[in-house]
Amino acid sequence: MGFWDLKTLKLDEFRPGIWSKVKSGANLTMAFMEITANKEGSAHNHPFDQCGIVVDGEIEMSIGEEKKLLKPMETYFIPAGTAHNWKTLASSAKILDVVVKQS
After folding, report:
1. Pick from 46, 55, 28, 44: which is nearest to 86 by CA?
2. Residue 80: closest CA among 47, 51, 42
3. What's this model's pTM, rounded to 2 decimal places?
4. Residue 50 lies in a domain
């Protein structure tokens, strides 16, 4: 499917408290995620760039030494090899995340 309507997109449980829908091609992956309140990822890095936009709610993103609470219509860009992490606070967050894998 080449089109998503984020208002009606059915999500699958990815991990407890995280629902997502993922579409992958040869070099690009797009994921729409809903993350419940009070969840935290694990700090990590990978050999490809990653970016995204907050669609709804709030999420705290840490990228390298920077940390910012992102709200709807705010974006993030994570350069390849940079340690990063995320955390939701009192509310859930919906984000559209994109990674480009190097071939």
Report:
1. 44
2. 47
3. 0.91
4. yes
DSSP result, 3-43: ---TTT---EEEETTEEEEEEE-SSEEEEEEEE-TT-B---
In a domain, 19, yes or no: yes
| Domain at 76, CATH number | 2.60.120.10
pLDDT per residue as tens digits for the range 77-86: 999 999 999 9
**CB-neighbour burial class of residue 29 (10 A; exposed 0-12, middle 13-18, buried 19+):** middle
Total domains present in the chain: 1
Amino acid at position 28, single letter: L
Evaluate whether residue 2 is within a structural domain. Answer: no
